[in-house]
Amino acid sequence: MVALSDVKRWNTAQLDEIFQTVQQRLQTLTHSGDDFGKVMPVDGWSGPSADTAGSAHHSLMSRIDKMAAGASVVAKAIGQAADAITGVQHAITNAEALAGKYGYRIAEDGTLIDTFPAGHPPPDIHPEDRARIRTQVADAVTQALRTADDIDADLASVLKRAQEGDFGTGDETTVTAAAADGARDPGLTLPEPPPNATPSQTAAWWNSLSPAGQAILLHDRPAALGAMDGIPADIRDKANRVVFTQRYDDLKRQRDDLQHRMDSLNQSDPTQQNEYFDLERQRDRLSGTLTGMDQINDRLTNPLPGQPHAYLLGINPQNSGQAIIAIDNPDTAVNVATYVPGTTAGINDGMATDINRSDAMVQAAQRAGSPSTSVITWAGYDAPQTLVDAASTSYADHAETSLRRFQDGLGATHQPGEVNTTIIGHSYGTTVVGQTARDLGLPADNLVMVASPGVGVQHAGDLRLDGIPPDQVGQHLYSTKAPTDPIPALTNFDNPAADTIDPLGPDPTTAWFGGQTFQSESTNPLTSHGDYWLPRSDSLRSMGNVIAGGRP
């Protein structure tokens, strides 16, 4: 592996100069070579000497063709290397600046040295923030050296192959054509992210690429980038909008095809009825998905006056559909909240309600004094679609890893500096949040549980928040339920002796759970399960206060 000190000394100006020289020499070679190619055959010259001259000419032209093809690839690879090295050195410079801000110095061998006396930071640097930055810097240095190794090995391979005449066929019609053939070789390849990369490692990989390399991946692999936790929000948004259009057009074609097949059947014919109704069910499911995607697209492309920009951080229309939409940029906001909806969540049920709730929480946080706020609707799991399904913990079981990785990704891409993070669960979403905090822990300052059927633990101290001692988690957990909300009423025993047999766990608003509560005033049993985000409601105001870093 190349050394950090070596990479920092790599001189891209020299590579640029070599690139220009090779390009100039290649231009001379192609012009002179093409002129030489016209020398033979000579009109009227035949016989053994003419044959010998023709053979020698063909041999020389073959060598010139391969030389031109090789020079073309070499020039391309040197230009790519200069560009790629710029990205690596920029990543190292940023890592050094970030390390210095948090009391670390990057040694010549890439290790981190603590510069604070006895390793104790000043009180304005939170130990948890410092630990997170240490991981990010270490990952950034490791990935920068990994990318530098890739550049070095790729360039050496191209130079060796050119020296051995591996480029070009030697039979091109002109030297100019041979050079063009060489230019079609990919040259240097872009490094892949590390296998099984964490979000922090993914962020380090992305930041080690040059802008040109990033643009190539964004163009060629939008689906992969859009799904990666650790990629900046603006990049994921660009990638996922491309994916969104592709998926939407494909689903629309599928629905139209189903409709055409239905139109060819006779609904009143008993022999065709089963096929007709089966196609109708498939068509209606696709129509529901397209309606949900229309609602997402409307918020992305037609915000109301004063509404912040929306970012599409994830889209998957399969099954009930998954989508992640951020209101304003979570990478730059001071206060970031993730809202996890519950039963029936997904694209098929429509996304407008959940997106509107995120917009409402952004406004509530602004009213509470938040200088900048991002609220994310995280329908990034297959949610139960019926109340019967919601009695099972399996949907939350399968969502845990995805939610934890997403939250880690937010931390990996957020600009340097402190950020206040809140995770809000509604209905079965509280089960998802609770189980994730129980089993994997969550990097969050506060949890908010709204209308919970249970969060998977018997006491707030059984939940884990990164950097918060178990006996203090209850001070960071806020819960609410409306007096007439049927979900908490019908899914909880509200009895400490019976709570242990509830598969989802007890109601977190109970006095014995150990958390904090706030008021929700809705008294309409038909609507109270969704009334927590009504304008000017106490519940919405309280959520805004918590998101802004305060208390209900």
TrEMBL record:
Coiled coil: 241-268
Pfam families recorded: Abhydrolase_8
Keyword terms: Coiled coil, Hydrolase
GO molecular function, one term: hydrolase activity
InterPro entries with a match to the protein in the record: AB_hydrolase_fold (IPR029058), DUF1023 (IPR010427)
Top-level taxonomic group: Bacteria
Domain DUF1023: 317-489
Protein name as catalogued: Alpha/beta hydrolase
Lineage: Bacteria, Bacillati, Actinomycetota, Actinomycetes, Pseudonocardiales
